[in-house]
Amino acid sequence: GELIDDDEASHRGKMYDQQGCSYLYDMDAHVDRGEEDNNYRKMYVLDAAKHGNVSRFINHSCDPNLAVYAVLYDTMDVNLPHIGLYAIRDIRKGEELTYDYKYELLEGKGMKCHCQAANCRGRLY
Question: pLDDT tens, 12-27?
Answer without folding.
Answer: 988 988 887 778 888 7
